[in-house]
Design brief:
The chain has 174 residues and is an alpha/beta fold. It is 34% helix and 20% strand. The two termini are 25 Å apart.
Length: 174
């Protein structure tokens, strides 16, 4: 699905761009191969691809509040349900871990991990919950470009990580 989307986007040098992203990450000590990098026309398209690949009708995906409305829209489109977990504005918008645990059920397929406003989420605890329950982790890292947690850059924690260079992000292009 992702490779078909790349070839249909009209960009002749997508492979070169993927190789450049892989080389940059590798040079910084975070090795990744070009075949693990997918380029899309924007984070909305990437989120659509990811959720469509991971969730089936009737499945649930854990999504933080506040949230990006696209998560809800894509899940509705594919017949899956968002299961909203609370974040605490008095603690830098960190997720309510007990609330997340209470929402997990046999239909839960994934956890959306968002680093809001450049503040890394409590990654270790969230990853432990996801691993314990066999959930895929979708890391939305656009707000945390350059941020680190435990010496690891945000965007390296999820099974799938999504970045954006849209004008309202920390790093804008275009």
């Amino acid at each position: 699905l992702a490779r078909d989307a790349e070839s249909s986007c009209g960009i002749d040098d997508v492979l070169e761009a993927r190789e450049a992203v892989a080389a940059e990450n590798t040079s910084r000590g975070w090795p990744v191969s070009a075949d693990r990098v997918v380029m899309t026309s924007g984070s909305s398209e990437a989120i659509d691809f990811v959720l469509t690949a991971l969730a089936d009708p009737g499945d649930e995906v854990l999504v933080p509040l506040p949230t990006y409305p696209l998560y809800t829209a894509v899940l509705a489109k594919i017949g899956a349900q968002p299961s909203y977990y609370r974040t605490d504005h008095t603690r830098d918008w960190q997720p309510d871990l007990d609330h997340i645990r209470s929402l997990i059920n046999p239909r839960t397929r994934a956890l959306v991990l968002v680093h809001l406003w450049g503040i890394p989420a409590h990654v270790d605890a969230l990853l432990a919950i996801a691993r314990r329950h066999g959930l895929a982790v979708i890391e939305a890292a656009s707000h945390a470009l350059g941020a680190v947690s435990g010496g690891v850059p945000c965007g390296r924690f999820g099974d799938i990580s999504v970045f954006s260079l849209q004008t309202s992000q920390l790093a804008a292009a275009g």
